[in-house]
UniProtKB/TrEMBL annotation:
The protein, known as: Uncharacterized membrane protein YkvA, DUF1232 family
Matching Pfam families: DUF1232 (PF06803)
Domain DUF1232: 82-116
Keyword Transmembrane: yes
Gene Ontology, cellular component aspect: endomembrane system
Cellular location(s): Endomembrane system
Top-level taxon: Bacteria
Length: 140
């Protein structure tokens, strides 16, 4: 796992080069976001029980909830944050990325490392969101 974390910055920078422009475009279009989140749900179902990919699912679930809350108007995010969240999900659902996902196990290493890097980059925003989300549960 240490090597994966060491490579996460490289994979994250490469993912931004390859997909940030597309992610930003998707972030600005509700229909595109809806399609992307649907693809993410399908992919999550395929890997939910896979032991080596399972730990990457929780950050993606948080990313999805943040996007849904933003799009509903319940919890606003900056365009930069929204773009990075979309980038993480886009990279997760794209089968041909830095390491193609058809390569068993190793094909998901870059996906997981990009998700980890985005999570670390947005750690403060994620913590604020999770606190907000918990406060909403208490008020229902």
């Amino acid at each position: 796992m240490g090597v994966l974390l060491d490579r996460s910055k490289f994979y994250f920078e490469r993912a931004k080069q390859l997909y940030l422009e597309k992610a930003t475009t998707i972030a600005g279009d509700n229909g595109s976001i809806k399609k992307l989140l649907h693809k993410a749900n399908e992919r999550i179902q395929n890997f939910k029980s896979h032991p080596r990919v399972k730990h990457a699912i929780e950050p993606i679930m948080i990313f999805k909830r943040m996007i849904y809350a933003h799009k509903s108007g319940a919890h606003k995010l900056s365009m930069k944050t929204l773009g990075l969240l979309v980038l993480g999900i886009l990279y997760f659902v794209t089968p041909l990325d830095i390491i193609p996902d058809f390569l068993p196990i190793i094909g998901f290493a870059d996906d997981i490392s990009v998700v980890i890097a985005i999570y670390k980059t947005l750690k403060m925003e994620i913590e604020v969101f999770l606190a907000w989300e918990n406060s909403q549960k208490g008020s229902i």
